[in-house]
Amino acid sequence: MFQLLPDTTAQTLTVIVNGETVTVPHGFTAAAAMLLCGESATRTTALSGEGRAPYCMMGVCFECLMEINGEPNQQGCLVTVAEGMHINRQQGKREVRE
Amino acid sequence: MPDYDAIIIGGGLVGTAVAYGLARRGKKALVLDEGDIAYRASRGNFGLVWVQSKGFGVPEYQRWTRRSSEDWAMFSAELQKETGICSGHERPGGVTICLSEEEFSKRAQRMAQLHVEAGETNFQYEMLDHAGLKKLIPSIGPEVVGASFTPYDGHANPLYTLRALHAALIKHGGTYVPNIKVERIDAAPNSFCITAGGVTYAAPRLVLGAGLGNNPLGKLVGLNVPVRPSRGQIIVTERVQPVLPMPTLMIRQTVEGTLMIGESREDAGFDDTTSPEIMRTLAERAVKTFPFLRNTRIVRTWAALRVMAPDGLPIYEQSSEYPGAFVCTCHSGVTLAAAHALHYAGYVMEGALPAELARFSTQRFDAAHVSTAA
Questions:
Q1: Which residues of B274-291 are buried (b: 16+ CB within 10 A; e: fewer)?
Q2: Of A47, A62, A93, which is closest to B240 when you measure between CB atoms?
Q3: Residue B65 Cα to chain centre, angstroms
Q4: pLDDT per position as a tens digit, A37-80
Q5: pTM score over 0.90
Q6: How many whole angstroms separate alpha carbon B151 and alpha carbon A65?
Q7: Is B142 part of the contact surface with chain A (CB cutoff 8 Å)?
Q8: How many CB atoms lie within 10 A of CB A67?
Q9: Angle CA(B256)–CA(B14)–CA(B262) in degrees, nearest 5?
Q10: Where, residue-wise, is CATH 3.50.50.60 in chain B?
Q11: Assigned architecture for domain B228-308
C-alpha cells in the first residue's frame, strides 16, 4: 500500500519487523517501517482483539502501539528506527512484569 | 401550567440519576446542565462503588451506602437493558491496603468500629495479613503489611454510567438541555420557575443536583448547602493484562485493562489542575503496593474536584421555606447513583424525605457540633 518516495541521498539501515529483516531509510519511525512492510494491522486491540493500524502518525491517537526491542505498548510513530531494532505487532494487552 | 413534573439542575451523575429515577416512574423530568465550563466531578471520577470507608461514627451513612452498593447490580442491569450501554459494574469485593503496622492496626480498629455500629445489619469484613492478601491479589509487593476486605465493594465505569443514565432518561421521555446556566429562580411552595438561557421552565418540584453549584443555587431556595471543593488527582496507565481481581481504595483495574491510581485529597480551592508533588506521592505508594507498576507506562493524569460537605457526608434536604425544592449532593456520585435513581427520586415525588435520611439534613450545619465523620 505504501511506497518510498524516490530519494537517492537517503542513508539506510536494517530493522527486523515481525521477524523479517528490512531496509529502511535513516530517520524513519517504527510505525513507518511497519507500514512499508505492508502490514495492514500493526496491533490488535486490548479489548476485542480487532486489528488496528497507525492513524495520526503524530503521537496522539495511540493506534500504532507496537513492541519495540521487547518493550510493549510503544507508540511506533514516535520511535525513530535504529540499526537492528526489533519491531513487532502489539498483541492485545501487554503482560506486567516486576 | 407546569411544563414538567420536576426540574433537575445538574446533568452529572447525581442530577441525572435523580432525573432518570423520576422518568422511570413516568414523571416528566427536565435536566438543565451548565456545560463543560462547570467543574465536572462526574467526568473525573475514580469509579469506585465503595462501602468500606464510609460512615465511621455515622451508621446511617454506612447503611445508605451499602444499600446503594447492593442495588447497583440491578441498577446496572436495568440501564443496560434500557440503553444497551454496559456500566462495567463489578462487585468482587474490595481491599484497603496497609503499608505499615500502624496503618494496619488503625484500619483494624476502624473496621471493628464499623462492625459494631452496623449492629443487626451485620457489617462483614476481614483483616488479611500479607499472606492472606497475597492469595487474593498475588501481585502485591513485599512491603504490604495487609489489608481490610469487605464483600460489599466494587467499581464501575463512571463515564459509561453517566452516558447510560442520559440515554435512559431520554428514552423515558426526559429532557436534557445542556450549555445553559440558571439565571433566575422564582420560587413558591411546590411551584418553581427556572429561567435559563432566556427560557423559563416551570415545575412543582426542583432538585439541586449541581455539585459545587448547589452552594450558590441553594441560597435561592432557602437551602444551606455548604459544599466545598476537595481536589483529587488520578494517574492512568497503559492497558495491561488482568492483574487486579478486585479494586483497592487506591488502585483499580478497568475491564479494558487500564490501571487507575487515585486517593489524594487536598484543599486547592477551585484549582482542578494536577501537581507533581501529589503525583509523586501517589506513584510512590502505588509502586510500593504493586511493584510491577514500576514498569508500567503512565498515559495520562488529571485532577477533579470532589463535592465535599464540611463533615464529608451527603446532603439531602427539602427546603422548609419552599417545599418541593430538594438538594441532593455528595462526593460519591458513582456509589450512590443507584440509591439516588431507585430511592431518592421517589422521595422527591412523594414530597418528603424519610427518617433514614434525617442524618443528612442541612440542620446539622446549624448546630454548633460539626463532627468529621467520613
A1: bbeebbeebbebbbbbbb
A2: A93
A3: 10
A4: 988 899 999 989 999 999 999 999 999 999 999 999 999 999 99
A5: yes
A6: 37
A7: no
A8: 20
A9: 45
A10: 6-80+158-227+311-366
A11: 2-Layer Sandwich (3.30)
CB contact under 8 A, B292 and A97: yes
Over pLDDT 70: what percentage of chain A?
99
Q: Which of B241, B244, B258, B288 to mutate to test the interface with A (most CBs of A within 10 A)?
A: B241
**Right CATH for A12-90 from 3.20.130.10, 3.40.50.720, 3.40.640.10, 3.10.20.740:** 3.10.20.740
Domain ranges (residues) in chain A: 12-90
In this complex, do B295 and A97 lie within 8 Å of one another by their Cβ atoms?
A: yes
Closest CA to B264 of B280, B243, B247, B244: B280
Which stretch of DSSP H or E encloses residue A22?
strand A20-25
In this predicted structure, the answer to whether residue A95 has a pLDDT above a threshold of 80 is: yes
Determine contact: B241 vs chain A, CB below 8 A: yes
How far is residue B41 from each of residues B175, B229, B303, B357, measured CA to CA in Å?
Answer: 21, 10, 9, 23
pLDDT digits (tens, 9 = 90+) for B229-267: 999 999 999 999 999 999 999 999 999 999 999 989 999
**Residues in chain B with pLDDT values less than 70:** 1-2, 367-374
Nearest alpha-carbon partner for B68 in B116, B8, B21: B21
- What confidence tens digit (pLDDT) does each residue in A54-63 have? 999 999 999 9
* Contact at CB, A94 and B238, closer than 8 angstroms: yes
Q: What topology does CATH give the domain B6-80+158-227+311-366?
A: FAD/NAD(P)-binding domain (3.50.50)
* Pairwise CB contact (< 8 Å): B257 & A93: yes
Q: Are B52 and B134 in contact (CB under 8 A)?
A: no
What's the CA gap between B137 and B158, in Å, rounded?
Answer: 24
Chain A residues with a Cβ under 8 Å from any Cβ in chain B? 46-47, 62, 73, 92-98
SS3 A12: strand
pLDDT value of position B52: 95
B295–A96 C-beta distance less than 8 A: yes
Could you report the predicted ipTM of this complex, rounded to two decimals?
Answer: 0.85
Preferred mutation among B295, B298, B300 to probe A, highest tally of A CBs within 10 A: B295
Alpha helices (H) along chain B:
13-23, 41-44, 59-83, 101-118, 130-136, 158-171, 214-219, 276-289, 337-339, 345-350, 363-366
